[in-house]
């Protein structure tokens, strides 16, 4: 896959169209077997300056590079936050509804910080508006395929959320050793799957996602 450098072109067009700010949104941990699902948000407004050099979709960055860029991205955005939904909530609600719940929690943090949510345009990676389905009052959501690659606000949200969730899984690995979460971050690596077979599921596992045979 060719490396794509994000820009602020989409965000500036939305701001020129009357948005008070643009909230870039991306999810992390959607396909993991263990740990929370997270939604990162990063706010840019008309005063946004050049974003940190090297900022890209988190999947295109090495782990050390993501850790370096995450605080820079958070400082660049006027506000940022990460909302989470627990493995139990994923099991009870399903992954799409859990994503919406995590996004709602991230937006609540922005609202508490004074961000004008109702006047914003939410720039959501992908082609499915799973966010509005979780909200009692719909927001102005624009979906865009590969927004995490070509929109700086969404790339920032991606990196911030990924580093935040990775840190949680590294902490969880120390508290519940044996599943190698520090390395696989809860995804289904061969070592992780072998550990589940040997040790059984842990509290952080999404039980409805596990298909283990004897």
Task: Tell me what the CATH architecture is.
Answer: 2-Layer Sandwich
- What class do helices, strands and sheet pairing give? alpha/beta
Q: Kindly estimate the percentage of residues that lie in beta strands according to DSSP.
A: 5-15%
Q: How are the strands of the biggest sheet laid out side by side?
A: 3-2-1-4-5
Give average pLDDT, whole number: 95
Percent helix: 40-55%
- Overall geometry comes to globular
Largest sheet: 5 strands, mixed
CATH top level is Alpha Beta
Assign the CATH topology: Nucleotidyltransferase, domain 5
Count of alpha/pi helices = 8
| Number of domains as seen in the coordinates | 1
How is this fold's topology laid out?
Layout: H1 9-16, E1 22-28, E2 37-44, H2 63-76, E3 79-85, H3 87-93, H4 95-112, E4 121-125, E5 140-144, H5 147-150, H6 152-175, H7 181-184, H8 190-199
Parallel strand pairs: 1-4, 4-5
Antiparallel strand pairs: 1-2, 2-3
Helix pairs in contact: 2-6, 3-4
What does this structure look like?
InterPro entries: RNase_HII/HIII (IPR001352), RNase_HII/HIII_dom (IPR024567), RNaseH-like_sf (IPR012337), RNaseH_sf (IPR036397). This is Ribonuclease. It catalyses: Endonucleolytic cleavage to 5'-phosphomonoester. Its cofactor is Mn(2+); Mg(2+). The protein has a five-stranded mixed beta sheet with strand order 3-2-1-4-5. It has helices at residues 9-16, 63-76, 87-93, 95-112, 147-150, 152-175, 181-184, 190-199; strands at 22-28, 37-44, 79-85, 121-125, 140-144. It contains eight helices and five strands, in the order H-E-E-H-E-H-H-E-E-H-H-H-H. The chain starts with 8 loop residues before the first helix and ends in a 15-residue tail after the last helix. It has a single domain (9-209), classed as Ribonuclease H-like superfamily/Ribonuclease H (Nucleotidyltransferase, domain 5). The radius of gyration is 17 Å and the shape is globular. A hairpin with an 8-residue loop joins strand 1 and strand 2 (37-44). Helix 2 (63-76) packs across helix 6 and helix 3 packs across helix 4 (95-112). It has 214 residues and is an alpha/beta fold.
């Amino acid at each position: 896959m060719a490396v794509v450098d994000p820009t602020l072109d989409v965000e500036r067009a939305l701001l020129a169209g009357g948005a008070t700010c643009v909230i870039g949104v991306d999810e992390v941990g959607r396909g993991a077997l263990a740990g929370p699902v997270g939604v990162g948000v990063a706010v840019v407004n008309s005063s946004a300056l050049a974003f940190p050099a090297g900022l890209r979709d988190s999947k295109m960055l090495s782990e050390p590079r993501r850790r370096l860029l995450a605080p820079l991205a958070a400082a660049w955005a006027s506000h940022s936050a990460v909302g989470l939904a627990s493995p139990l909530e994923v099991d009870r609600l399903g992954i799409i509804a859990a994503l919406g719940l995590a996004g709602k929690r991230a937006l609540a943090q922005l609202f508490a910080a004074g961000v004008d949510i109702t006047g914003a345009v939410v720039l959501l990676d992908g082609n499915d508006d799973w966010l509005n389905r979780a909200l009692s009052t719909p927001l102005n959501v624009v979906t865009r395929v590969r927004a995490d690659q070509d929109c700086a606000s969404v790339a920032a949200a991606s990196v911030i959320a990924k580093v935040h969730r990775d840190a949680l899984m590294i902490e969880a690995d120390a508290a519940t050793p044996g599943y190698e979460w520090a390395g696989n971050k809860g995804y289904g690596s061969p070592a992780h799957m072998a550990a589940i077979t040997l040790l059984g599921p842990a509290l952080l596992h999404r039980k409805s996602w596990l298909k283990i045979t004897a």
